[in-house]
Amino acid sequence: MMLRIYEHPEKEVVMEKISEKLSRFLQLRDKEKAVGYVLDILRRGETDVIEFYSDILTPLLNGTECIMKDEKICIWQEHVRTAIVRTIVECCYPYVIEKRNELNMPKRGTAAVLCPPDEAHDLGARIAADFFVIAGYDTIFTGSCTPYRDFCNALRAVKPDIAAISISNYYNLVGAKKMIEEIRREAGPGLRIVSGGNAFICDRQKKIESIGADLYVEKYEDIMKLDQ
What we know:
Elements (H helix, E strand, L loop, with lengths): L8 H19 L3 H14 L4 H14 L11 H18 L1 H11 L6 E5 L8 H12 L3 E6 L4 H11 L3 E5 L6 H15 L4 E5 L7 H8 L3 E2 L3 H5 L4
Parallel strand pairs: 1-2, 1-3, 3-4, 4-5
């Protein structure tokens, strides 16, 4: 697991400690201790929600390994961990608002965060939605399994400035391309479409161009640069 290299070595030690302890709670499937621990470190200011999402939670999710002796229940193990992390993210929302207010972000428009219709993994999109909130966007998160025709129908009412599409599964790139084509027909040229997710691990720029998105967004800092 790669954590950010911090200016002060003691900060890096703190972050590694947090990561190791949370990882242990997730491996034990201890939801109560995992959620309580995260809220406690945020309350005490040991880290903030941006660091926590970027340097601890995302690497833990991307580095998930099956520790069960019976490989037949590895998928079950992954789903349990994901469910715990989802609860953690939802519980972090007050700290998301607190961070946005602390940074005194100007209003930057509306961002709609969604997934292709067949994309079952929307936790990355959920975290991205919080990043958009912190960055000053009025953010609408629709999650997975939302028919894009319904999203297109809502464009007239929502009028987002940015549509952020999270794609975890490589095989959903084809569906994402069709989705983006229809969104552009409905929304017109003013809408910026960005995308991210594990589907872009290899040949990132080529895949972004192939689906018709404008930009690849990987982290909070990328979102902050969207207006530049």
